[in-house]
Design goal:
This protein has 527 residues and is an alpha/beta fold. It contains 14 helices and 20 strands. The chain folds into 3 domains: 283 residues, FAD/NAD(P)-binding domain; 105 residues, Succinate dehydrogenase/fumarate reductase flavoprotein, catalytic domain (Flavocytochrome C3, Chain A, domain 1, Alpha-Beta Complex), CATH 3.90.700; 85 residues, Fumarate reductase/succinate dehydrogenase flavoprotein-like, C-terminal domain (Methane Monooxygenase Hydroxylase, Chain G, domain 1), CATH 1.20.58.100. The strands form 5 sheets. Strands 1, 2, 8, 9, 10, 11 and 18 form a 7-stranded mixed beta sheet that branches. Strands 19-17-12-20 form a 4-stranded mixed beta sheet, with helices on one face.
């Protein structure tokens, strides 16, 4: 079955939903969601959205903070573009009805690690959830947006699928309906990837199960460059508890005075950085990793109890409630925490309109590499990037007349059969994530990376063989994308002969004088 739309949006996080709402008054939009609209990494964001909203703050200060966190690898034009459009992005969310937290002076602005001023607007400690809830209600009610939940994209459709080796254009995508098991052809003049990052490539992550690198992998197979994939941000403070899965303890806890401590109650961050708990995430994550290994610990502790019960309940109601469910009263007790894979700073290369190397294909949010984050994302710049680049892509799409599409081939499943041993998928999934955690984690060496690449190549070959002979399933699609994304991460890491930002190598501990991005270009794809 072929479904025709003006714009196909793959991914239902903030980038995807914001783009859909901005497009829908003028274009027919298909919105693909792997699960339900609410199930995205955007909805898990706790801290807030960074933007210059206070008269005591400035555009230049926000840019400077972004560059410091990004170890000066940030693209200057992209960074200024995002920061200068920050206020308008926030105003748009306010117009949509997002209930940002207020105080006696107006909207309450908090401060997070790496920021020189209070500029993070938020909804208590569940900003992403509030933003997603607000936008989702509008998306569901818009007559020009057709929602496809429980659908996962298999691959983008480009000229090569039409037998045109010189046609570098995207015409839509093949999409699996999880409920029926059928793969449908989605045809569209323009396609936007907003599928998020690849946190699930690691054994421990703060990301939801949807973060499997789908957009990055599909774009690479379609012929797009990817850049700076070695910069995987490990959030310093993921709750350490056997009954808690991927629960993030917000950056704002440290921003509001939370202190990191060893089991004996002593602080350690002042020994690692003069900014102590307010240092950027990469520094804090490495410090925690160092202390855990040095003392043979399972975790360290984040203590906000000295701020008092009233303050904690007001500022961190969700964190307080979740910890209390697990027997941790954060008004009295410190929170056990460990670092976990959190954010993919690299991704698909695009320009300031969100355009990729493939005509008709756009990217926004964590899937992209805009140049904003450099070697390390500054806290709360991620949702801002989603909003600004979603708008930029929409403006570029609306400036065009929808293209006349050729007849697209339907998905051919005639030469495949049902898998006889799906246990192969779960085994490969587990091996991949453990290899990445052990060899491509917070501290790296060339030998570890080479070992990881060897294992990933073997897995890649086995998974592609499986993909060629059996019907596609949700798990197989994700695993295929994860193993490719893992390979891209490792290849970028091996190219970087220095330690910068999130990439720390024992073999190359120094920082080179000139900051350069690592860019991978795919070989010409075979038909």
């Amino acid at each position: 079955m072929v479904l025709n739309f003006d714009v196909l949006i793959i991914g239902s996080g903030l980038a995807g939903q914001a783009a859909a709402l901005r497009l829908a008054d003028q274009r027919r939009v298909a919105l693909i969601s792997k699960r339900k609209l609410e199930d995205s990494a955007s909805g898990w964001a706790q801290g807030g959205i960074a933007a210059v909203l206070d008269t005591q703050d400035s555009i230049d200060a926000h840019i400077h903070d972004t560059f410091i966190a990004g170890a000066w690898l940030n693209d200057e034009k992209a960074t200024r573009f995002v920061v200068e459009n920050g206020r308008r992005a926030i105003n748009w969310l306010i117009e949509q009805g997002v209930p940002f937290t207020k105080d006696e002076t107006g909207y309450h602005l908090t401060r997070e690690g790496g920021h020189s001023a209070r500029r993070v607007i938020h909804v208590a400690d569940a900003t992403g959830a509030a933003v997603q809830k607000t936008l989702t209600a509008k998306v569901r009610s818009h007559p020009n947006i057709r929602i496809f939940e429980d659908h996962i994209a298999v691959d983008l459709i480009t000229g090569k699928h039409l037998g045109r080796s010189d046609d570098n254009r995207c015409y839509g995508a093949y999409v699996l309906d999880d409920n029926s098991g059928e793969v449908h052809t989605f045809a569209a003049s323009n396609t936007l990837l907003g599928t998020g990052g690849a946190g699930k490539v690691y054994l421990f992550t703060t990301n939801p199960d949807t973060s499997t690198g789908d957009g990055i992998a599909m774009a690479w197979r379609a012929g797009c460059r990817v850049s700076n994939m070695e910069f995987i941000q490990f959030h310093p403070t993921c709750l350490y508890h056997p009954n808690a899965k991927s629960f993030l303890i917000s950056e704002a806890v440290r921003g509001e005075g939370g202190l990191l401590k060893l089991p004996d109650g002593s602080r350690f961050m002042p020994e690692h950085d003069e900014r102590a708990e307010l240092a950027p995430r990469d520094i804090v994550a490495r410090a925690i990793d160092f202390e855990i290994k040095k003392h043979g610990l399972d975790c360290v502790y984040l203590d906000i109890s000295h701020k008092g019960e009233a303050f904690i309940r007001e500022h961190f109601p969700n964190i307080h409630a979740r910890c209390l469910e697990l027997g941790i009263d954060i008004t009295r007790d410190p929170i056990p925490v460990v670092p976990a894979a959190h954010y993919t700073c690299g991704g698909v290369v695009c320009d300031l309109t969100g355009r990729t190397d493939v005509a008709g294909l756009y990217v926004a949010g964590e899937t992209s590499c805009t140049g904003l984050h450099g070697a390390n994302r500054l806290a709360s710049n991620s949702l801002l990037e989603c909003l600004v680049f979603a708008e930029a892509a929409v403006n570029d799409i609306l400036a065009q007349t929808p293209a006349v599409l050729p007849q697209l081939p339907e998905w051919d499943a005639s030469r495949v059969t049902d898998a006889d041993e799906e246990v192969v998928i779960s085994h490969n999934w587990d091996e991949l994530r453990r290899s990445m955690w052990n060899y491509v984690g917070i501290v790296r060496t060339t030998k570890r990376l080479q070992r990881a690449l060897h294992r990933v190549h073997l897995l890649h070959s086995e998974i592609n063989e499986f993909y060629s002979h059996f019907r596609v399933t949700h798990d197989l699609i994700e695993l295929r994308n994860l193993v490719l994304t893992a390979e891209l991460i490792i290849r970028c890491a091996l190219l970087r002969k220095e330690s910068r930002g999130l990439h720390y190598s024992r073999d190359y501990p120094d920082v080179l004088k000139k900051a350069r991005s690592t860019v991978l270009k795919p070989a010409r794809q075979k038909r």
